[in-house]
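re: ur question from earlier - yeah i can do the single chain one, its not a big deal. heres the input i used so u can compare w yours
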Amino acid sequence: MPKLEIKRTSELTRKEVSDRLIALGQALASGSEVELGSGGDSITIDVADQVRWELEIEVEGDQIELEIEISWRDGPSGYEEIEETPAESEAEISAKPARRGRPRKVTAK
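and the output i got, formated as tokens:
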């Protein structure tokens, strides 16, 4: 398959970002086909059953960057084994209350 890259950058409200993430999550939960769009353009992609999830948080001065990357191999199985970084489980991460202000690094107990 030829390389395809679509990149859009826009300024959104926190609510607009939340709505987009919820829509993506609902599409992933309901089936393997996900339609993504921005600025009138859209693309439909098939997502494998097993995917690789990467979360990166970077703080530099007053700039905070959160990157979520979801990747998979083309085909029905995606990634056979998902590599987990020895960190907190997803349940432990989502169970923590949200806090405002500057993020801080928390070490695993």
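Confidence is low (pLDDT under 50) at residues 86-100. not sure if urs matches, ping me
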